[in-house]
Amino acid sequence: MVARYPAEVFGFPVENRGSKVEAIRQAHQCPFVNVRCNKKSRLIPYPMDVCSVHINEHVVAICPRRFLENHTVFKDIATDYFGSTNNLILFREVGLRDVGSFDYVLVHHKPMSSEVDDFVVIEFQTDQTTSTGKLVQALEDFMSGRNVGTTHYSFGMNTYDTLKRSYTQMINKGVVMEQWGQRIYWVLQRYVFDNMVHRYHPAFTPGSSATHVFAVYDLIRSEETYTLTLQEYVSASVDALFAALRQNTSIPEKDQFIARLEAKIERGKPRLRLDFRQ
Q1: Fewest Cβ atoms closer than 10 Å to its Cβ: which of 35, 158, 218, 268?
Q2: Which residues pair with residue 219 across a beta bridge?
């Protein structure tokens, strides 16, 4: 059976029932931003703070705030792009007309001045679940004291939809960054990144030299927590991402689609009949 259950609730592994951790949970605090969790579900009266889920051998983040742990991501990217963390300011949700908004912009300014020397855009992309009511049930079971780590909950992962939405943004925002001669870092977890590679097969270059830089992280279990850990940087041009989309090898054969239509006709599936006769 596929093992599916919450991995972290209010910032800590479900196996961690220590008194300090339980106090954080009872206060409904998000330890990654030190404020009350803002995720909601109409099915429960308290925040829906499942930070990550256990899918087989993977622990997959489903909340963007999970990537804010100790500001590790920003420190890593600052060191990679600027070479240090000095004279930097971080802005959140910076809008750009006709493009959208950037999750974060890390700005390097001149010492004792507001003059901008350089900047880098940072985008977070976590995964999402399907049949989320099952995950809500898991959270309710956990908060009532049950050991959910031994129970299978039949929610799913909506990784394909996650990638469809983010891939369009990658191309649109990448065009802007390429025109400006700037870089954009996409923060992805290993599970999502590997899924993207499997679906589209983009041509990546090791390191962070191209317009699109993919900062690949994973959640690594320590004694009492999971730690967000950088695994690699790879990069790609806008052209490389678009070519991967256009040359997608996973496109099914047209004959398969026609066969499916014919099967629907044979089964008399509900459909709209059009009669153009006068």
Answers
A1: 268
A2: 228
* E strands, the chain, in order: 4-9, 12-13, 29-30, 35-36, 50-55, 58-61, 88-96, 100-109, 116-125, 129-130, 156-157, 184-189, 205-206, 212-221, 226-236
Residue of 77, 52, 184, 62 lying closest to 123 (CA atoms): 184
Q: What is the pLDDT of residues 51-73, one digit of tens each?
A: 999 998 899 999 999 999 999 99
The secondary structure of residue 196, as a DSSP letter, is H
Q: Tokens standing for 169?
A: 């943004």
274 located within any domain: no
Domain range enclosing 163: 67-125+158-267
Read off the pLDDT of each residue in 249-256 and give the average, rounded to a whole number: 80
Mean of pLDDT over the chain: 90
* Residue 269 clears pLDDT 80, i.e. is over it: no
Say whether both 204 and 79 belong to one domain: yes
State whether 151 and 162 are in the same domain. Answer: no
197 in the same domain as 74: yes
Pairing status of strand 116-125 against strand 184-189: parallel
Q: Which residue has the higher pLDDT, 119 or 149?
A: 119
CA distance 117 to 77: 16
Stated pTM of the model:
0.87
User: Which residues are CB-neighbours of 95 under 8 A, at least 6 positions away?
Assistant: 101, 102
Assigned domain for 17 exists? yes
174 shares a domain with 36 = no
Structure confidence by residue, pLDDT tens digits, 2-26 = 689 999 999 999 999 999 999 999 9
Indicate whether 170 and 251 sit together in one domain.
Answer: yes
pLDDT at 105: 95
Each residue of 181-204: b (16+ CB within 10 Å) or e? eebbbbbbbbbbbebbeebbebeb
Q: Are residues 41 and 169 in the same domain?
A: no
